[in-house]
Design a protein that fits this description.
The protein is built from 2 helices and 5 strands. The protein has about 100 residues and is an alpha+beta fold. The chain has a single domain, classed as TATA-Binding Protein, CATH 3.30.310. A 5-stranded antiparallel sheet has the order 1-5-4-3-2, covered by helices on one side. Helix 1 crosses helix 2. The radius of gyration is 13 Å and the shape is globular.
């Protein structure tokens, strides 16, 4: 089990329509746990042995996860693929050279 922190090129300044699409995607992703204390969360249980949380930060959409590496990689790659389709622009990590999309 490892800690993971990753940002995606989803900028906080995007119009509400994009955030509405993301909210629907959140619910469709595997292991959706709902909003815990206002934070979109997956895999959560009473002991928080495994968890994914997301927050909107100036650096982009930030994910924190406590999962085995392989499980995290599969889930995160699926999220990026689905978000790319739902949002209509390439979603990826700015550290990998993926540009922010501005409207």
């Amino acid at each position: 089990m490892n800690h993971h922190n990753h940002n995606l090129n989803i900028h906080y300044s995007l119009p509400d329509e994009y955030w509405e699409r993301l909210a629907k995607l959140y619910e469709e992703m595997p292991q959706w746990s709902g909003y815990l204390n206002g934070v979109p969360t997956w895999f959560a249980n009473e002991r928080n042995e495994q968890i994914i949380e997301v927050s909107v930060e100036p650096s982009g959409l930030q994910f924190y996860a406590l999962l085995p590496d392989e499980e995290w990689a599969a889930w995160f790659n699926l999220f990026k693929e689905k978000a790319t389709t739902v949002l209509g622009f390439e979603v990826g990590e700015p550290e990998d050279g993926i540009e922010f999309f501005y409207v």
